[in-house]
Amino acid sequence: MLAITPSRLASRIDALARFGALPGGGVTRPCWSPQHEEARAWLLGEMRAAGLDTWVDPAGNVFGALGVTALAADRPLVLTGSHIDTVPEGGVLDGALGVLAGLEVLQTIRERDPAHRLPLAVAAWSDEEGRYGSLFGSRAFCGTLDLPRVGAMAAVDGERLVDAMARAGFDARRAGEARAPAGSVAAYVELHIEQGPRLEETGSPVGVVESIVGVRRSRVIFIGQADHAGTTPMDRRRDGFLAAAEYALKARDLVVKHGGGRSVTNVGVVTVHPGVSNIVPARGELVHEMRGPDPDTLARLDRRSAALARRVARRRGVEVEIRPMSATTPAICAERVQVATEQACAALGLAFTRLYSAAGHDAQNLAAITDAGMIFIPSQGGRSHRVDEMSDSGAIERGANVLLHTLLALAQ
Ligand code: GLV
Ligand code: MN
Ligand code: MN
After folding, report:
1. pLDDT digit string (tens) for 368-385?
2. For the residues 173-189, what does the mean pLDDT come to?
3. Which residues neighbour 384 within 8 Å (Cβ) at sequence distance 6 or greater?
4. Does the reported pTM lie above 0.70?
5. Which residues, 6+ apart, have CB-to-CB distance to 392 below 8 Å?
6. What's the CA-to-centroid distance between 171 and ligand 3, angstroms?
7. What mean pLDDT do residues 106-114 have?
8. How confident is the model at residue 226 (pLDDT cuts 50, 70, 90)?
9. 360 alpha carbon – ligand 2 mean position (Å)
10. Which of 31, 126, 134 for mutating ligand 1's site (highest number of atoms within 8 Å of CB)?
11. How far is the CA of 280 from the centre of ligand 2 (A)?
């Protein structure tokens, strides 16, 4: 049976891991950073050396294609891909696996020439991790980028997207031109590490993704009063940080109790102003995220957490401002892609499990314009978004072969 070359894929994973490598392992490679741009140049070189035609669109998405040199409605292609940007202090497989396995699969198909009718391409989507706004490249490609907002998009440290892109040689205001012509993508399938413990704990070598969670993010700002930290009596303080801290703990309880068992929540960004040890905090600011596979549950949790924030603020004598940052709805994967993946597993003698993705992925945007799906492989210990994220070499090889046969079936 046709199979990828595992050593070639492994050496490319090692090579890409050098860009932004951290001394103790893992990698920091935010989109548009010098490390990312070096990785992009390396990737384009690898794609060309593998015999693919390449292009980069105005949103910075990188493409390597077999049988076409551009997207066109009259010649739809079957697409795979993922991303080469990482979270800070992230692992070497989140995103890299899907891009490099896609490249390996296309190279295998070019070399061995199995029968297929439709052209194929692999994409590396820009800023999947959302330093400036989540899933930026695939949103531009799928036509759901809020173009008037591009000028205001910024990282939590304040760096503006327009400046980061300009430094990398791109004009952010042209990102809308990356939109794919209607009908130009016949199907999309992305290989990714699961990033959680379910496959490993159930002994399943392959996950066939049925749906991808929705994610809501809001900035919750508690505004109290700055005061002298030594002289102000405790009962007169209006502490913005303590209100934020109480809200964070209670929001967690709310999601655990009323989230239907599958909703999760996180506070990953906290800012205290003015941030000085001898001043009572005037402001405590959180980025509050909630995720879940059920849209109604997510909407209900959103309403209840807003009410909770107002209650906490009232009790503590502070003001609260809630600024919604982003809200995605759960995406459904196409049955056709799931069946093609399951048939590929059966042909390879691999068991599989259907599951929902608890992480966000570019495939959720692609699902709005084409039949889209995802293939998961187990993550060691369920670990991801940390430097020791890893999957077994056998799991990587199996996943890439499932991708190969799924793409070939979709391209018939
Ligand atoms: C992407 O990594 C996400 O935040 O789910
Ligand atoms: Mn990812
Ligand atoms: Mn990630």
Report:
1. 999 999 999 999 999 999
2. 98
3. 91, 93, 94, 193, 195, 196, 359
4. yes
5. 378, 380
6. 25
7. 97
8. very high
9. 7
10. 134
11. 39
Give dist(CA 246, CA 59) in Å, integer: 40
Atom of ligand 1 nearest to the CA of 360: 5
Give the CA count within 13 Å in the CB-facing half-sphere of 327. Answer: 10
CA nearest neighbour of 371 among 118, 113, 133: 118
CA distance 16 to 241: 41
pLDDT grade, residue 296 (50/70/90)? very high
Q: What is the mean pLDDT of residues 114-118?
A: 96
CA angle at residue 294 from 293 to 300, to 5 degrees? 130
79 touches 92 (CB < 8 A) = no
**How far is residue 279's CA from residue 227's CA, in Å, rounded to a whole number?**
6
For the segment 29-58, the average pLDDT, to the nearest whole number, is 98
Q: What per-residue confidence (pLDDT) applies to 199?
A: 98
CA of 94 from ligand 2 middle (Å) equals: 5
User: Quick one: DSSP state of residue 135?
Assistant: T
Angle at 236 between CA 231 and CA 241, to 5 degrees: 90
State percent of the chain over pLDDT 90.
98
Nearest to 400 by CA among 181, 93, 98: 98
Q: In what order do the strands lie in the sheet with 319-327?
A: 264-273, 283-292, 214-223, 319-327
The whole-number average pLDDT for the span 341-356 is 98
Cα(105)–Cα(120) distance, rounded to whole angstroms?
10
Report helix, strand or coil for 11: helix
Q: Tell me the helix, strand and coil percentages in the chain, rounded to 5.
A: 40, 25, 35
CB-based neighbours (< 5 A) of ligand 3, an ion? 94
CA of 364 to the centre of ligand 2 (A): 12
Give 153 Cα–ligand 3 centroid separation in angstroms.
Answer: 19
Phi, psi of 133, rounded to the nearest 5 degrees: 160, 125
210 touches 363 (CB < 8 A): no
Q: What is the best residue among 97, 361, 389 to mutate for testing ligand 1's pocket, by most ligand atoms within 8 Å of CB?
A: 361
Q: Choose among 357, 96, 410: nearest CA to 208.
A: 357
From the CA of 359, give the closest atom in ligand 1: 5
Mutate to test the pocket of ligand 1, among 89, 129, 364, 376 (most ligand atoms within 8 A of CB): 129
Q: What is the dihedral of CA 95, 96, 100, 102, to 10 degrees?
A: 0
Question: Which protein residue's CA is at the shortest distance from atom 1 of ligand 1?
Answer: 360
Strands 214-223 and 227-228: unpaired
